[in-house]
Amino acid sequence: MFDLVVSGNYAFVWRIVISVACGLAVCWAAAGCGTGQRGEEAEAAADAFVTALAEGDGAAACGLLSPDAAEQLAAEEGKPCEAAVLEQGLPTDSAEETDVWGDRAQVRTGGDVLFLVELAEGWKVVAAGCAPQGERPYECEVEG
Amino acid sequence: MRKALRDNGLSICFGLLFLAALVGQAFAGRADYNDRQLVEGGAPASLVQYVASGDFAVDLAENWQSEYLQFFLYVFATVWLVQRGSPESKLVGKTGTESDEEQKVGRYATEDSPEWARAGGWRTAVFARSLGAVMGALFMLSWLAQSVAGRSAYNADRLAQLQDPLSWTGYVGSADFWNRTLQNWQSEFLAIGTIVVVSVYLRQRGSPESKPVGDPHDTTQDTG
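ok -> structure tokens follow
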């Protein structure tokens, strides 16, 4: 390849450079490769969370919270996450709209806005029961 | 081979420096990104994940756009503006696009002039502006890339802080976009202004960016 560069035959080098650049440009424009599929996964995680709440399955709901959110909820309420999460009165409507940026997602349900993060074990809810505060961050019943 | 290396030393050297710095940026940027992920409760990214992320892309594009803007403006500004005594400037009385004879175009082209300089008409008109046009196009493309990648990185940060993501137009009007843009522009303008003025009074023996060491300070457009 080096010979090609210095001998003035740039076609091969340019093809590689342009291929890599185009691949990266597509990834960057989509805010990360595989955004469409990841959006569906985030939405599925949000739906699983609200379904667990609707069915009164606190353990499943806590399993879908991020470790920080589950820990903070238990600490604030002074009881295990499994019990505390069911007492927050969180809406249980299903997901309607999902926005994924990097490793973060926002899922709007019929009555709530959920924030999720993509961890090694999949998408987890970091905030639920969120109310908008204008330009300031949402205030959420569960947050961590 | 040796001749090819010697004849292309400047482009090869800077090409390799670019690649080395790019790889260094990828490693350092990933480490910084993962530090922030730790604080914000996110997962660490692999090198490949980081290089494909908006965070890496915006850091890359915001610097590229300002460099291409620097050359685009400098190519155009030096047609009309001069700096007496600077080897970066042409002679004080020669502002403007100059005559066809001085520029060796059309019937004044020589045998070894590029084909489009000899052709006349639209081809010569395009070729006569091609350097600035390409620099301008690269600037606009890089700036557009900065806006797209910057929106991606910024929206990920906003979601982590429990805020709504911004539209593209919302991001282009945001403080983050203009802070990234202007902090790069000011440094480029400072660097150009510095080399133009300092090269009037200081010398670097053998460099075409400098006047010959013995040239008087008020000599303009002479390199060596």
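The mean pLDDT of chain B is 95.
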